Amino acid sequence: xxxxxxxxxxxxxxxxxxxxxxxxxxxxxxxxxxxxxxxxxxxxxxxxxxxxxxxxxxxxxxxxxxxxxxxxxxxxxxxxxxxxxxxxxxxxxxxxxxxxxxxxxxxxxxxxxxxxxxxxxxxxxxxxxxxxxxxxxxxxxxxxxxxxxxxxxxxxxxxxxxxxxxxxxxxxxxxxxxxxxxxxxxxxxxxxxxxxxxxxxxxxxxxxxxxxxxxxxxxxxxxxxxxxxxxxxxxxxxxxxxxxxxxxxxxxxxxxxxxxxxxxxxxxxxxxxxxxxxxxxxxxxxxxxxxxxxxxxxxxxxxxxxxxxxxxxxxxxxxxxxxxxxxxxxxxxxxxxxxxxxxxxxxxxxxxxxxxxxxxxxxxxxxxxxxxxxxxxxxxxx
Length: 382
Known about the structure:
- With 382 residues, this protein is mainly beta.
- Among the domains are: 86 residues, 2,3-Dihydroxybiphenyl 1,2-Dioxygenase, domain 1 (Roll), CATH 3.10.180.10; 118 residues, Jelly Rolls (Sandwich), CATH 2.60.120.10.
- It contains 3 helices and 30 strands.
- A 7-stranded antiparallel β-sheet has the order 8-28-25-30-24-23-22. A 7-stranded antiparallel β-sheet has the order 9-10-11-19-14-17-21, with no helix packed on it. Strands 1-4-3-2 form a 4-stranded mixed β-sheet, covered by helices on one side.
- The chain is elongated and about 90 Å long.
């Protein structure tokens, strides 16, 4: 559904058919100013592989229309002080441009050469203690597909992780489109309400209810279809800055169901809260239901819902994990961290505890439930 670096809400409407209002749009051109036409035409055709579609007038050419790589360029007389820029996708930019990543056309257009399939960039770890209270951090902004987003990991651990509390107040169809994310890890937990989703090769669309969760493995195509009133989900991703790309070719559902399909070393997970079983957690006197993400990610991440089972507190301990996150789903608790004041937490509050910091959950209410996420799945407490 996500967040940072998402495409804007630009689900393309169907282009109108010809009617009494006139013909439909049949094409588009990017206008680039030139002062000397021939050198610029030669650059775009011979250096970048565009082709000439039109050039005129014949006796003294001043305008040329070129096409290639999904673009149509119109070169015409103009002020080259503002000749614009183009991004050209290449499989090997350095080899294509002989060691540089920028070319300057004769008319001054800046041509930026970028990797057509750039690898995901994982920022170095910058762990810190983060406690975010819903009551004082209720800055909701409008994100992709008209959904409202709240940042629940301020600072984003140096860009390593992003957490979003997402809501849709009024249910109905969601103006989403088939898309995918270049990520290392991404999950969605339904906190309130319901949402209808569809995923590549995972059968027909289905409804995610409160307490249910999905793992979205890297680059799986998916789409949000509709929601009920008052939908709230929690989405976590790594890295924080990642690309969201539309896929205009694939149709969902695909008509196939392949729950074991491998997506870059991970497989899709759909967790049903209603049928989940509870087992002892890492802290004595607490229990958890396992979302199943540990197995599906081969130990990369673990996701659980934790609740008291006779205890009101955990023993102080620290960890050496990459990431430890909690979201209070219901009830109340306090988080006590060595060298810090006590943090009293209620539903909607979140926390990230960095490695090496001794901490404990205290004053846990009997109805407490916490979404517990760690990378890796198995962590040791000291």
